[in-house]
Amino acid sequence: MDFLDAAVQTLDSTIRLSVPLLLACLAGLYSERSGIFDIGLEGKMLAGAFASAAAASVFHSAWIGLGMGILISVALALVHGFASITHRGNQIVSGVAINFVAAGSTIILGQAWFQQGGRTPALAPGERFEAIVFPGADAIRDVPIIGPIYSELISGHSLLVYIAFLAVPFTWWALFRTRFGLRLRAVGENPAAVDTAGISVEWLRYRAVICTGILTGIAGAYLAMVQNAGFVKDMTAGKGFIALAALIFAKWKPVNAMFACLLFGFLDAIAIRLQGSPLPIIGRVPVQFMQALPYVLTVVLLAGFIGKAIPPRAGGVPYVKER
Question: Which domains, and CATH codes, for the chain?
Answer without folding.
Answer: 2-304 (1.10.3470)
